[in-house]
């Protein structure tokens, strides 16, 4: 099972943390720091798996991670998960984020904590892989945002207008997460 | 989070841009955006904390205020709290508001409530009951979206309370659909329900009853919806692990689903349903190869197809394509290795892994090394794996990534056997010079184990270990150098060589302290073997060792001082030189009490004691009893699960054990080194114990002197309490509870925080039956539960028990016993299991003693005295005088003697206070009669116990058992 999903940036600032096993808050922060130290000093084209840090359970657990531009996506799993399968799951997660946020960047994760958590909960539930088919996930997210919009009613109208304006502004956008053609992935 | 860290990042420009126009993505949460931007602009940690506290005060007042907040505001504040929490600050309020959101009918509010609860709440929060109530309501909701939110929250928290409160609801969702009109959404509910059930099953299986639904759960594998099948496969795998028999039906369904996994399924980068395939292949790894030939053929076809696909040119250049394809391939190979039955597939798998070993993808090389470790343990493929030795050695040397190199070390360790041991050990030693610090200690252990396991020539072994110490002395743990000394002492063919080699090694200008320790110890024992050579004459040896003395720590110095006194014995000609050293202020007045004491006492010993006494006191160490290598124990401790798995799969290659038996002397050497050390600080380093300093003094030199090392080893390191053992290798308390059973048959044999063990027993003649009850006291499942019994003079036939014990459950085991001959050592009961990720081992004594096979015998006074006189040879009697441990109470004593299995004969002894008893002990094919007399002395609170029996050791065995009972 997946014990924890962590996203942090190149400086170790946490951007998403989701523990599927209870750890006290301060230990959660320590685990994030420890994991960051473990993965951040690794080169980009070394292997994506390594043994877990001592806080999260040591060598019985594996850290499986990917590094996209400014962010590390780290899954800490036990031996019942397939390493490559989880690696692909990270990719699905990021691709889904990318579709939902239209070119996702670190800021989206900061400003839309709730939405990121919702997307994640469509993929992983209680530490287990729930759905891996991206179109399926997107349909569900779509349904949810429809629900949200119908409930938000008139309040949502300005937001829709704003996003229309935003789309006109395309060239100005700086995209630090280009998916699926990721620079570090193309290299290998 | 200072602003500076952000500015360094590439995104910072982007961030600033976006932050200046928060409306772009802010939708309707402007307040949140402003807050986050504020935090970002904080210049210092203090400023950040200040801003956060301000915000927390604001939110708190909003929540407390009398104006009811609308959903939007609640959502905004909850998002802020989540953000604050992510930054690592405690949130101690807002929980009630979040719980209230759960009962809202609006999706957005409910959703944010569940989000907050799932991220923040801990399993034992007071509010959990309210949360469970809301979840229950939502599970019953006709709206599948609400049901799913509730299921997600249940799975994410997955606490015991949830299992208790919801365990009955969820299986219903899994197998019964709702109305037909909601066909589409039912799938998503089923999918989530399967995983929620799985999660609860893992935390508290006792609350989940699936029994009646098991066949319907299995048939979820036939579901149309891919997601449902994937989740169901995960659930079924967990169920199978508990009860393989009941879920056997899933094998054929899984195989047929696997063979249908083709392009009609959802494809991910041109690979059809990779996750499902992986799950199914994993599921199948829980069973032996299918028995039904049709299913078996189909599975073989599937595996061959997967292997064939690996050879096809890739359908896409995208890395995801290769990744997904290899995920399936790798799992297929693991299944082939698991089935371990089809040599053709095994060889293909091995070849495929061989290709991966040289693949440009690091991940694949890593996985190939890992899977090959398993292949190396299969007898079909062990040889095939060995062909790749060169490649593996190469990856050890050239891989850039330490986690891959670590796998290479593991594989080399697994593939090593007699034929390639020297080569592999050589490569590993060579690599050790430049190895990463993080893996050095483990490598050192592995090299030491391999060298010991496969040593044909023990001079090679000594060379390897000394090289280890030379190359990475810092990582050589005490176990390693203790072990080399054990082996050298036990094998006299290598002692001379060892002495010569350490002597040479010590000549290096800088040598590691561990080398000095080994050198000091070996020269002290066997320095005489090389003293004939003028280049290593006694004086040269002494001067060499003394040149290192001042560079060493106190523990080593203590060891060297002991070597000096041994030298005094071995080489009387340098006695005065050594005495001078001992006399020097540096030693005699050393501020370290231990060193000072040793100097004083050794000096005294060398002056006072005659040559004979000296020779006796400082005699050569007796051989160590054969035992499992302590290094191996250490390695196991480092990697509990990994090595155990490897061991289970490796019955043909028992883990190394020093081959000491051929040299073990049978004569009992007197205590070897009873150094007069009156006081010994409890903190004395382990190496001090090596010198026998734990013995109280020369007068009471412990008869178990040979086991000093054992004691040291058994307590070295910080082993968890349940794994600790006392000097007899028993779990603490085992001896005491064993004694409780001498006069009774039922009771609690062992209890700690995890486990309670109760025993009921009955005996008839030379047969006995024991019921042992194992109760799991924790809230975790025990897995890998196994029981082993060791006994020699009786036959002990334990009935098998399952390998798991659920939380709170009790398992019964029956052991049948037959007494073959008299015995004094009780059978050992060795219990091992895994609980919550920790492995535990208990070494207990099975409460079976020789007296259990005794039946009371009645006889009159004349017969008694006739028999008593008939048993008059010295070895037919044992007499003990001991102090009363309990108040002298006639009735209690009678109960005890009857419990012991002997009669109470009244009116035989002239003194009515005395007890006289008789019994017949049944052993296979014969009987031993025994007579007992117990004389209490109330004034002195003493007893005298006399036992006579026809067969020599029996009186002593019985007296030993009985003397602690009164």
From TrEMBL, chain A:
<dbReference type="GO" id="GO:0006896">
    <property type="term" value="P:Golgi to vacuole transport"/>
</dbReference>
<protein>
    <recommendedName>
        <fullName>AP complex subunit sigma</fullName>
    </recommendedName>
</protein>
<keyword id="KW-0813">Transport</keyword>
<dbReference type="GO" id="GO:0030123">
    <property type="term" value="C:AP-3 adaptor complex"/>
</dbReference>
<keyword id="KW-0653">Protein transport</keyword>
<keyword id="KW-0472">Membrane</keyword>
<comment type="similarity">
    <text>Belongs to the adaptor complexes small subunit family.</text>
</comment>
<dbReference type="InterPro" id="IPR027155">
    <property type="entry name" value="APS3"/>
</dbReference>
<dbReference type="InterPro" id="IPR011012">
    <property type="entry name" value="Longin-like_dom_sf"/>
</dbReference>
<dbReference type="InterPro" id="IPR022775">
    <property type="entry name" value="AP_mu_sigma_su"/>
</dbReference>
<dbReference type="GO" id="GO:0006886">
    <property type="term" value="P:intracellular protein transport"/>
</dbReference>
<feature type="domain" description="AP complex mu/sigma subunit">
    <location>
        <begin position="1"/>
        <end position="146"/>
    </location>
</feature>
<dbReference type="InterPro" id="IPR016635">
    <property type="entry name" value="AP_complex_ssu"/>
</dbReference>
<dbReference type="Pfam" id="PF01217">
    <property type="entry name" value="Clat_adaptor_s"/>
</dbReference>
<dbReference type="GO" id="GO:0012505">
    <property type="term" value="C:endomembrane system"/>
</dbReference>
<comment type="function">
    <text>Part of the AP-3 complex, an adaptor-related complex which is not clathrin-associated. The complex is associated with the Golgi region as well as more peripheral structures. It facilitates the budding of vesicles from the Golgi membrane and may be directly involved in trafficking to lysosomes. In concert with the BLOC-1 complex, AP-3 is required to target cargos into vesicles assembled at cell bodies for delivery into neurites and nerve terminals.</text>
</comment>
UniProtKB/TrEMBL annotation, chain B:
<dbReference type="Pfam" id="PF02883">
    <property type="entry name" value="Alpha_adaptinC2"/>
</dbReference>
<dbReference type="InterPro" id="IPR012295">
    <property type="entry name" value="TBP_dom_sf"/>
</dbReference>
<keyword id="KW-1003">Cell membrane</keyword>
<keyword id="KW-0254">Endocytosis</keyword>
<feature type="binding site">
    <location>
        <begin position="76"/>
        <end position="80"/>
    </location>
    <ligand>
        <name>a 1,2-diacyl-sn-glycero-3-phospho-(1D-myo-inositol-3,4,5-trisphosphate)</name>
    </ligand>
</feature>
<feature type="binding site">
    <location>
        <position position="62"/>
    </location>
    <ligand>
        <name>a 1,2-diacyl-sn-glycero-3-phospho-(1D-myo-inositol-3,4,5-trisphosphate)</name>
    </ligand>
</feature>
<feature type="region of interest" description="Disordered">
    <location>
        <begin position="628"/>
        <end position="699"/>
    </location>
</feature>
<dbReference type="InterPro" id="IPR016024">
    <property type="entry name" value="ARM-type_fold"/>
</dbReference>
<dbReference type="GO" id="GO:0030122">
    <property type="term" value="C:AP-2 adaptor complex"/>
</dbReference>
<dbReference type="InterPro" id="IPR013041">
    <property type="entry name" value="Clathrin_app_Ig-like_sf"/>
</dbReference>
<dbReference type="GO" id="GO:0006886">
    <property type="term" value="P:intracellular protein transport"/>
</dbReference>
<dbReference type="InterPro" id="IPR008152">
    <property type="entry name" value="Clathrin_a/b/g-adaptin_app_Ig"/>
</dbReference>
<keyword id="KW-0168">Coated pit</keyword>
<dbReference type="InterPro" id="IPR011989">
    <property type="entry name" value="ARM-like"/>
</dbReference>
<protein>
    <recommendedName>
        <fullName>AP-2 complex subunit alpha</fullName>
    </recommendedName>
</protein>
<feature type="compositionally biased region" description="Low complexity">
    <location>
        <begin position="675"/>
        <end position="687"/>
    </location>
</feature>
<keyword id="KW-0813">Transport</keyword>
<dbReference type="InterPro" id="IPR050840">
    <property type="entry name" value="Adaptor_Complx_Large_Subunit"/>
</dbReference>
<feature type="binding site">
    <location>
        <begin position="30"/>
        <end position="31"/>
    </location>
    <ligand>
        <name>a 1,2-diacyl-sn-glycero-3-phospho-(1D-myo-inositol-3,4,5-trisphosphate)</name>
    </ligand>
</feature>
<dbReference type="InterPro" id="IPR017104">
    <property type="entry name" value="AP2_complex_asu"/>
</dbReference>
<dbReference type="InterPro" id="IPR002553">
    <property type="entry name" value="Clathrin/coatomer_adapt-like_N"/>
</dbReference>
<feature type="domain" description="Clathrin adaptor alpha/beta/gamma-adaptin appendage Ig-like subdomain">
    <location>
        <begin position="739"/>
        <end position="847"/>
    </location>
</feature>
